[in-house]
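Input.
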Amino acid sequence: MGIRFCKFHGFGNDYIVVENTELRNVPDISEFTKKICRRNSGVGSDGVAVLERLDGGEADYSCRIVNPDGSEAGFSGNGTRCAVGYLYFKNLWTNDNLRLKTKSGIKNYEFLKRDEDTFWYMAELGKPHFAAGRIPFKSDRPDSRIENYELQISDRMLPVTALNVGNPVCVIFVEDFDFDWRKIGSEIEIHPQFPERTNVVFVRVTDQRRIEIRIWERGAGETSSSGTCSIAAAVSSAATGKTARTVAVHAVGGVTEAVWRDDDEMLIMGSAELAFCGEWFGT
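Output.
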């Protein structure tokens, strides 16, 4: 018997969702994830979300996010939303609210609507961290904010803003996307000043209520959407006075509604759409 899974995506950012009981005979979840995420020889995805039912104390379920390179993420906005969509699709959870335990803390999900096999949620993601030591970002002053910091990359100094929104994110404001942002993203992901590596998001501000982004994710590379990068882009745009605290974040895959409330809480609204379910017989 194979490992049963369902594949969901949030605006094209796809995740294989599996219950932890399916992995009882898997000796190495990292190697399993590398194989199943391969586009040509596996199922293909931007990561694996592993769900475990809890006793209902501080949270209802836990969710681990494993990247295609086998590393474990602190959090994924789209990945966890896909996991929550799985629970509703399978009728494992039917309440309008769900508390999900992640590596970066408890996240709250409010069910908004279902349109066939597409599920919409508002998610509370917690509060952003700006101090270098919390990102983490190597600095002589771990309590300092990393804003318009001149980061040395291979051929230039590049002004960056960095923060932690469950994962470390490096934000770069641009006028357009007519440059090799993928090369820059891949270089910054593993930059020595980010000791745990980092997501990289390139942001073009259109107006006070709208931004566009391109995404290079830690451990996954280019993705069509990212909840983590979307909220990081929105928070950074508002924190630097470029936008309001509520913005529509336009990625290649779709639009995420992002809110940074006055009480510092971050929220995103988006969908989890079922692609298919199946069984994995790979070794």
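The mean pLDDT is 97.
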